[in-house]
Design brief:
By secondary structure, the protein is mainly α. It has a single domain, classed as Winged helix-like DNA-binding domain superfamily/Winged helix DNA-binding domain (Arc Repressor Mutant, subunit A). The chain is 70% helix and 11% strand. The termini are far apart. One of its GO terms (molecular function) is DNA-binding transcription factor activity.
């Protein structure tokens, strides 16, 4: 079953895994060493991230290295951009109100 990207990144461990492999590709064992959990637990998180295409496996000998899928995250960022502009406008308006209130004191 394909996972929802929002469910995938809602979990702090999965966000931490993404942060780790954004720097360098890692095997599940190497990832498990970074967390206080079993390799099997890390593998379940990896499965969710892989189902969302946020990470991609690359076999190398007997190991599988997981890479950060920047293209998928960029697609997500583009989707968020439409909201970012709205937030930016609202924050600018709030800055103006706060500045006006500060001047009135």
């Amino acid at each position: 079953m394909k996972q929802d990207i929002f469910q995938a990144i809602a979990d702090p461990t999965r966000r931490a895994i993404l942060t780790l492999i954004a720097i360098q590709a890692l095997t599940p064992n190497a990832m498990a060493e970074k967390f206080d959990m079993t390799r099997q637990a890390v593998s379940k998180h990896i499965k969710v991230l892989h189902e969302c295409d946020l990470i991609r496996p690359e076999p190398s000998g007997r190991e599988i290295y997981y890479h950060f899928n920047a293209k998928k995250m960029q697609e997500f960022d583009h989707w968020l951009a439409q909201f970012r502009e709205s937030w930016k406008t609202q924050f600018n308006q709030l800055d103006k109100v706060l500045s006006t209130l500060k001047q009135q004191k």
